[in-house]
Amino acid sequence: MQILDGIAVSAHIKSQIKQETEKLKAEKGKTPHLAAILVGHNPASEAYVGNKVRTCEELGFGSTLLRFEDSITEAQLLEEIKKLNADDKIDGILVQLPLPKHISDNAVINAIDPGKDVDGFHPITQGKMLLGQPSFLPATPYGILLMLEHYNINTAGMHCVVIGRSNIVGTPMTVLMSRNAQPGNATVTICHSKTKDLAAITKTADIIIAAIGRPRFVTADMVKEGAIVIDVGINRIDDATRKSGSRLVGDVDYDNVAPKCSYITPVPKGVGPMTICGLMKNTLEAAKEHV
User: Fold this and answer.
1) Chain segment 111-165, per-residue pLDDT in tens
2) Cis status of the peptide bond prior to 100, with omega within 30 of 0
3) Do residues 268 and 247 touch, judged by C-beta distance below 8 A?
């Protein structure tokens, strides 16, 4: 069993991004610039955005963090996005989800200029991805592809089972794993909360990508020997042995599933760092387009 180490892989990829960024600055006088919008004070969102801003600094990107109270109206937030769309210095825009209930995620995502949609959520972006046209890939699926590529895992002909159908991970992951590319060329089955006899399906999988948002949902009896398991889940559970009283676990019962796997991602330090890599690669590509 080999651990797919998101920290090590992301360090390698960030080194490449940093070199490309320095070259872009030297040759074109262009510095990639990411704008992040954070609404409210959700601790997880604070941590995620903080990581992204720190990574921008590490890579030599510019970054702008716009913070708003959760009392901001949808109209006010859309106006802030409009300003960022019009700002030539800004190459990428991300709005950290979830948003307060009175603000429509779709309205906000649709308001972002597709040329600055480095999270890869806009309908135009996802439509281009579906058709195989050049586009920004959603950051988490992109990060997973980068990880598979780094470890030279040939996915052609494999049966890939994706558990979860969100627009952020599950649905785009099925498209990317089935397309004529490497990684890709897999035969993909998408499963979800209404799937009957899920274990019978997952036991046939060469690759399982778990993104259902339920702690330790994938158990050892659902996984065949030698499978590759990618755990996208980040769930906080109670743990009296920890000083904080809680800890992070994935959607996979790691301790019992790992011994059966050929490759597996840990949680944390697996897919999470790769998501940020996907975001930063998209921002760099956006900057190149905006020279």
Assistant:
1) 999 999 999 999 999 999 999 999 999 999 999 999 999 999 999 999 999 999 9
2) no
3) no
Catalytic residues: 52, 96, 119
In this structure, what token pair is assigned to residue 144?
């997973």
Exposure string of 108-120, with b = 16+ CB inside 10 Å and e = fewer, is bbbbbbbbbbbbb
Structure tokens at 45: 């969102």
pLDDT in tens, 183-207: 999 999 999 989 999 999 999 999 9
Give the closest residue to 171 by CA, choosing from 126, 233, 112: 126
- Angle ∠(127,132,136) on CA atoms, nearest 5: 65
Domains, the chain, in order of start with CATH, read 29-116 (3.40.50.10860), 139-272 (3.40.50.720)
pLDDT band at 242 (very low <50, low <70, confident <90, very high): confident
Q: Residue 148 carries which side chain, given as an amino acid letter?
A: L
Find the helix or strand (DSSP H, E) in which 23 lies.
helix 6-28
Alpha-carbon distance of 198 to 18, in angstroms, equals 42
Residues ≥6 apart with Cβ < 8 Å to 184:
155, 156, 176, 177, 178
